[in-house]
Amino acid sequence: MREAKHLKWFHAQSAGVENYLRPEMGLSESVILTNSAGMHGIGIAEHLLTFTLMLMRRMHSYVRQQPLHKWEYLGPIQSIYQSRITVVGLGGIGSQYAARCRALGATVLGVVRAPRETVPDCVDELFTIDQLDEAIKDADVVALTLPSTAETIKLFDKARMLKMKKGAFILNIGRGSAIDQDAMIALLESGHLGGAGLDVTDPEPLPTDSKLWDLPNVILTPHVSGGGSLALTSDLIVDRFVEYLQDYIAGRPFKQVVDRKAGY
Fold it and tell me: Which of 2, 151, 189, 204 is catalytic?
């Protein structure tokens, strides 16, 4: 990028752009930066829903029994119907996940950065980030779909996770830095957190000696929820780029430009 002296516009195939904003990348302030926000929503929402149902129904534990040839009842399960789910970050991913949970009968709370004039159809209640503790305290599931910004780093520290109700599940498909990982591990071991579904960790790749690998109440995937392995996602990303390319050629403003200060 430092050598691209005539670069005027850069489009990221990802939604997160923190890597491109690092000073050493040399992306000039004069370059318009756009991303593929919203194009990953369907695929990642389905990944989150998979985490949710597997943890609620102990499916991950039953799968681990299978190679051991064990036919054993592992205890009560939960239903997503009439459960309470808090989605922290209600962008393209969070809103898609929220809509699916609500369609299955859950009460869904959304947490956003700034107040909105109306409550989106995908949630039952809307909270701002300064009301986060209120939004998570009675939730059966707390799902994080946050970008990496100065405001989100370790947003879920030990004190905040202790405010979640005992046995609740925490899900994260945004950035691993949003959670104090050591504190989360301790709370998973103590039973305060009932389980976790993590597509992102801090750092990545997850070190081989991390306790997360061996905790029985954790499901890990290696940052693949929004990857190009889903043909639909790849097609949507290309569609967004082609749309923006046509706008660029015609001199029209882009639908959305990254706010570098906000980080998304």
Answer: 204
Q: What share of the chain is helix, strand, coil (3-state, %, to 5)?
A: 35, 15, 50
Q: What angle do CA 75, 59, 216 make, to 5 degrees?
A: 75
Residue 204 annotated to the active site: yes
Q: What token pair was written down for 258?
A: 């990254």
Residue 155: how many other CB atoms lie within 10 Å:
18
Tokens 């947490």, residue?
Answer: 111
Domains in the chain: ranges and CATH: 1-40+228-264 (3.40.50.720), 41-220 (3.40.50.720)
Entry pTM: 0.89
Are 214 and 185 a contacting pair, CB within 8 Å? no
* Closest by Cα among 99, 102, 97 to 144: 97
Q: Are strands 141-144 and 125-128 parallel, antiparallel or unpaired?
A: unpaired
From the candidates 40, 100, 175, 240, give the one annotated as an active-site residue. 175
Q: Two tokens at 214?
A: 């061996």
Residue 25: exposed, middle, or buried by beta-carbon count in 10 A (0-12, 13-18, 19+)? exposed
Tell me whether residue 60 is one of the annotated catalytic residues: no
Averaged pLDDT, groups of 10, the chain, 264 residues long: 92 90 92 93 96 98 97 98 98 96 98 95 98 98 94 97 98 97 98 98 98 98 84 92 97 95 86
Active site residue 175: yes
Looking at the DSSP bridge assignments, the partners of residue 65 are none
